Recover the amino acids of this structure.
């Protein structure tokens, strides 16, 4: 019995040291990782709302009320909010699909960008292409969009297309319930 | 066993991929571009050297009964550390390697070297063994990846190499092509070493 | 994702061995005979389904709650190692013949990247508990399908006339290449 306790203790100590080492490494690298992610998103956001001169991350707790919404950026023009860029992550085929949806304060969808996805090459990855994404431009953010009614899916890639439209719909829901 | 032999064994004569035939999963999956293969190889080498060193340092105080779980914790710790570093400083590689970065922890090479070498040898020799095997893995992986990238995308390390009208055989950079090219490579290597042995 | 899509995807479209390239070591190592392959598949299916579920629970109720997400790799692999030990003991007691024929490949399930792979993917795809269980089982069935089919072909290959250089792994890899090519046809099914 004593043996098992001793063995268990040794394993526990080593795991604790491991946790400690990883915690330190995590603290060092997390900042850099977050910074790089922000840079990448900023580039997309400038594409979506080119007239905005600044983007600010909201820390309004209300954004957590909608499933799938990760972050919300206010697009500022001359100090006033001209629109929002909402980042959502929804389940696709090969993992999470990150969508950035730009919505004007007047309730129109300006554009969307697929920030990251790991969908099937040549099929699901088509949601990141202009042909699919441009369908969203100019649509009203009054209510949810329906696949194959308001927007055509990518043929043979239902799941990926659904993930994309779910992301946009989550942004629409958030815009109508919280941000307006 | 002198240090030079330890290194040469890992690099060539006991090459992880071509001779020991371990670590197949990442070999087939990340060898679609030379850069990915090379990056994966270096990441795995870093983990291998780190874990070999630590396991060798702990070998006198490690109870035999729980040595495998301890190896696993040490290896997993290094893998997670490398994961974080790659994510922070080599984000493109991180995205490309995807799930295979954390999967380095179950790369049989690392556990095999821990069990077969690091647990029984000095810290310095273990580090060299890690370096040799790691570089051997990287070498074979990069060559395989370069071949696949060359014929499958017409480029090497991202630089287009093939003539303009070359139509890349994109199947080569898909899983199916991976199996094919590795099989060919192994057959060629086998013929080569058989000839050497019979000479 | 509907459960039906998860099942079809796990078994056919994103087959762990032939599409995702996970679980290759046992795929190449334990596929010389259909019987051994079948035994191995059952063990792997059991471990994968259980491991996927337990790791999901660990992530949800321990790692996430304590903000220890970076301990995922360490925790998951320890859970899997413990599970495999447990399965080993069970098989040794209930079927010594199976235990003998699986040999070293049984403890090697720990390093089967498909098991750790499915655990990580369940979290990445943000599955709920039911979806996790279904996905783990479906992926395992996909693995079993691939390995048993492969064993069937390899058994036949043993009796064929193969050039010296291609014997063993090379011809096996060519076969796998063709199987993977065939399974590509399932892409875009859903």
């Amino acid at each position: 019995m004593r043996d098992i306790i001793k063995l268990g203790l040794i394993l526990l100590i080593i795991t604790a040291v491991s946790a400690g080492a990883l915690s330190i490494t995590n603290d060092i690298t997390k900042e850099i990782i977050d910074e790089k992610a922000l840079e990448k998103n900023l580039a997309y956001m400038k594409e979506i709302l080119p007239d905005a001169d600044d983007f600010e991350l909201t820390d309004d707790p209300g954004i957590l009320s909608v499933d799938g919404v990760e972050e919300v950026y206010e697009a500022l023009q001359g100090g006033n909010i001209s629109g929002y860029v909402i980042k959502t992550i929804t389940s696709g085929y090969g993992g999470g699909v990150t969508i950035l949806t730009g919505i004007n304060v007047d309730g129109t969808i300006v554009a969307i960008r697929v920030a990251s996805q790991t969908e099937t090459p040549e099929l699901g990855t088509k949601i990141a292409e202009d042909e699919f994404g441009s369908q969203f431009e100019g649509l009203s953010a009054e209510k949810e969009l329906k696949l194959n009614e308001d927007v055509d899916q990518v043929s043979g890639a239902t799941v990926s297309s659904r993930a994309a439209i779910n992301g946009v719909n989550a942004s629409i829901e958030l815009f109508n319930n919280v941000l307006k | 066993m002198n240090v030079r032999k330890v290194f040469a064994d890992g690099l060539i004569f006991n090459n992880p991929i071509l001779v020991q035939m371990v670590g197949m999963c990442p070999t087939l999956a990340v060898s679609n571009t030379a850069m990915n293969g090379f990056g994966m190889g270096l990441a795995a080498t870093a983990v291998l050297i780190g874990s070999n060193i630590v396991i060798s340092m702990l070998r006198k105080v490690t109870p035999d009964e729980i040595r495998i779980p301890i190896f696993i914790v040490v290896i997993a710790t290094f893998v997670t550390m490398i994961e974080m570093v790659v994510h922070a400083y080599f984000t493109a590689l991180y995205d490309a390697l995807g799930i295979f970065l954390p999967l380095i922890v179950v790369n049989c090479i690392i556990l095999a070297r821990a069990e077969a070498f690091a647990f029984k040898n000095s810290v310095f020799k273990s580090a060299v063994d890690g370096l040799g095997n790691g570089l051997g893995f990287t070498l074979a992986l990069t060559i395989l990846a370069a071949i696949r990238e060359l014929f499958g995308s017409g480029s090497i390390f991202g630089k287009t190499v093939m003539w303009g009208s070359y139509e890349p055989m994109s199947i080569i950079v898909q899983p199916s092509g991976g199996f094919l090219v590795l099989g060919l490579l192994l057959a060629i290597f086998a013929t080569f070493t058989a000839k050497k042995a019979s000479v | 994702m509907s459960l039906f899509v998860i099942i079809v995807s796990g078994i056919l479209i994103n087959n762990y061995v032939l599409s995702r390239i996970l679980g290759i070591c046992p795929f190449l190592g334990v596929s010389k005979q259909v019987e051994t392959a079948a035994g191995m598949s059952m063990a792997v299916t059991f471990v994968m389904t259980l491991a996927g579920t337990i790791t999901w629970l660990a992530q949800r109720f321990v790692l996430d709650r304590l903000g220890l997400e970076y301990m995922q790799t360490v925790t998951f692999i320890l859970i899997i190692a413990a599970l495999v030990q447990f399965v080993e003991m069970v098989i040794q007691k209930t079927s010594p013949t199976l235990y003998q024929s699986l040999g070293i490949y049984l403890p090697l399930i720990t390093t089967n990247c498909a098991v750790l792979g499915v655990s990580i993917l369940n979290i990445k795809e943000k599955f709920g508990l039911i979806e996790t269980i279904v996905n783990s089982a479906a992926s395992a069935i996909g693995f079993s399908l691939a390995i048993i089919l492969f064993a069937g072909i390899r058994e036949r290959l043993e009796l064929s006339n193969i050039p010296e250089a291609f014997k063993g792994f090379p011809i096996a890899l060519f076969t796998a290449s063709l199987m993977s090519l065939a399974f590509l046809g399932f892409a875009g099914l859903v």
Q: What stands out?
A: The two ends of chain C are 11 Å apart (CA to CA). The first helix of chain C runs from residue 3 to 13. Chain C has eight helices and no strands.
